[in-house]
Amino acid sequence: MSKRFNSSxxxxxxxxxxxxxxxxxxxxxxxxxxxxxxxxxxxSENDSNIQKNIVNISKCLGNLVSQxxxxxxxxxxxPKKNIKTYNDKxxxxxxxxxxxxxxxxxxxxxxxxxxxxNYVAMACLNxxxxxxxxxxxxxxxxxxxxxxxxxxxxxxLKKKFPFEKRGxxxxxxxSNKIILKPIFELKNRTLRFRYLRDYIESGYRSKNYKIxxxxxxxxNMLDSLLEKRRFIKxxxxxxxxxxxxxxxxxxxxxxxxxxxxxxxxxxxxLRTWIK
Length: 275
Hints:
Blueprint: E1 13-14, H1 23-37, E2 39-42, H2 50-61, E3 64-65, E4 75-77, E5 86-87, E6 92-93, E7 104-107, E8 119-126, E9 134-138, H3 139-149, H4 151-157, E10 160-164, E11 178-182, E12 184-187, E13 190-193, H5 197-206, H6 213-226, E14 232-235, E15 242-246, E16 250-254, E17 268-274
Parallel strand pairs: 1-2
Antiparallel strand pairs: 2-15, 3-17, 4-17, 5-6, 7-16, 8-15, 8-17, 9-14, 9-16, 10-11, 12-13
Helix pairs in contact: 1-2, 3-4, 4-6
């Protein structure tokens, strides 16, 4: 049992020896474990091959897809310091979530795409001394909870919402392009969850759509459930560790973290999107 993670995560951990196996064996191990556990953490004591390891692991699961308008498939998640996250005139957030050091905002990746990535992998290049813990939520549990306790909210979240296509607009400007998709979508008994509240709210503003009281109530309840202790797993990655999650229903976020004493970025990850 790893000394760096608590016992509740023991079945989610994979030793770095997996990198010594051939790609076919790696794929088989990952898919089998992901089907049962929904997310995995590959522990690594050797951080010299982080980039090589995350790319190889990702390719074993599928095809790497672009994460922004520039076609970048291996993205460095590094917050920008002393840059406005908000456009006061247009009352819109400018930066994407991964470009900040903010916490909360538990979400799925690529909700603004026609087809979001099936899997997300994140490798830790550097970890913050304070904050920066990963937070994961199995949204299937929330779906079942709402289906039993509050079908009105669940039915609202099954409706289509305008997601702003942020990060994929020309010249990095705020986008007025949207995609209409539900937050919870059930197809062939398979659940797909897509959500990043900022992108939906900016989608409403860009089209002058009205957010009703029922929609706001439903978003507030969803946000509350996404952070409820009974539904989440919380842990801190160390340098060299790789987190892999099923993006179709495992939502994720982080706790707020601080920059180091010199004002430099203290938490830096590499991320891939996989289909």
